[in-house]
From TrEMBL:
InterPro entries: Glycosyl_Trfase_fam3, Nuc_phospho_transferase, PYNP-like_C_sf, PYNP_C, Thymidine/pyrmidine_PPase. GO terms for biological process: pyrimidine nucleobase metabolic process; pyrimidine nucleoside metabolic process. It holds the Pfam family PYNP_C. Gene3D superfamilies: Nucleoside phosphorylase/phosphoribosyltransferase catalytic domain, Pyrimidine nucleoside phosphorylase-like, C-terminal domain. It comes from the Bacteria. SUPFAM superfamilies: Nucleoside phosphorylase/phosphoribosyltransferase catalytic domain, Pyrimidine nucleoside phosphorylase C-terminal domain. It catalyses: thymidine + phosphate = 2-deoxy-alpha-D-ribose 1-phosphate + thymine. The keyword Transferase applies. This is thymidine phosphorylase.
Length: 291
């Protein structure tokens, strides 16, 4: 799910320019759907075509990411490039090429840029789909004991990178400052304040139909196919159906028994559930188990 797809399950994101200005002046930040204020109208049209065709290219990715940042007036940008065998970027060489492209464009527009190359061998968090990802976000921010640890860790790493890039803290101290802000409750308080300024906080919707996909044998999780898991979530109805997607229950390295749920499908209709189950049955190695 895109950021706006996820955030609109928690609060209003279709603010007009006057509302946007009011929220930023009051709270110092906002959650915004760029289309509502036409930050990058050409990018919106291109994304619709790319989603329909399941198409990605380095050039369109860089243009999509940076056009919105430039239009919004950003001066400092941290870019996360996950690398993994089934991620969009498959190896370190591709990551370097993409990073160079980001840097070239950023230099043209006088953007201060920091690239973080991270582990993309498996999804971060448990949910894939707008409402399910929003639930994970709330769990981390509210310091819930069952919050996904990997999402917390990555969030702190990227937040720390922003703090260091902007000079708010010395190099090497960003993660500690971000962790203190989260653990003290200030991050959650600010999140709630921004949501309140934008019209209130919502409870993410829950899908009408849920079905676990169980391990067909015992073994150790050796690999998780990000690309095909994203396909599963899309067939389930995400991101158009906000409650649709899947919940991932295992991580690489986990040991599972036959019959253990690997992930749970969330759909809004029996038809979508049947459709996605057919895909899952024809792709039994989405989560690879070794003995």
């Amino acid at each position: 799910a895109g950021t706006a797809d996820t955030m609109e399950t928690l609060t209003r994101v279709d603010l007009n320019r006057n509302e946007l200005r009011r929220v930023i002046e009051k709270e110092g930040g906002c959650f915004i759907w760029g289309d509502a204020v036409d930050f990058s109208p050409a990018d919106t049209a291109i994304i619709r075509v790319e989603r329909a065709l399941n198409f990605d290219s380095a050039g369109s990715m860089v243009a999509s990411v940076l056009s919105k940042k430039i239009a919004a007036g950003a001066t400092h940008v941290v870019i996360d490039i996950p690398v993994g065998p089934t991620a969009k970027i498959r190896n370190r060489g591709q990551a370097r090429e993409l990073a160079d492209l980001f840097r070239t464009v950023a230099l043209t527009f006088d953007l201060k840029l920091r690239i973080e190359v991270t582990d993309g061998s498996q999804p971060i968090g448990r949910g894939i789909g707008p409402a399910l990802e929003a639930r994970d976000v709330r769990a981390v921010l509210s310091r819930s004991p069952d919050a996904p640890q990997d999402l917390r860790d990555k969030s702190l790493s990227l937040a720390g990178a922003v703090l260091e890039l902007t000079g708010k803290v010395p190099e090497g101290e960003g993660i500690a400052r971000a962790a203190e802000t989260l653990d003290s409750g200030r991050a959650w308080e600010k999140f709630l304040a921004i949501c309140k300024a934008q019209g209130g906080i919502f409870d993410p919707p829950v899908a009408k139909y849920q079905r676990p996909v169980n391990a067909t044998r015992s073994g150790r999780v050796a690999a998780i196919d990000n690309h095909r898991l994203a396909r599963v979530a899309k067939l389930a109805g995400a991101p158009d159906d906000k409650a649709a997607g899947l919940d991932l229950h295992v991580r690489i390295g986990d040991t599972v028994r036959q019959g253990t749920p690997l992930y749970t499908l969330h759909t809004e209709s029996i038809g979508e559930l049947s459709y996605v189950l057919d895909y899952v049955k024809s792709n039994p190695d989405i989560i690879e188990l070794t003995r």
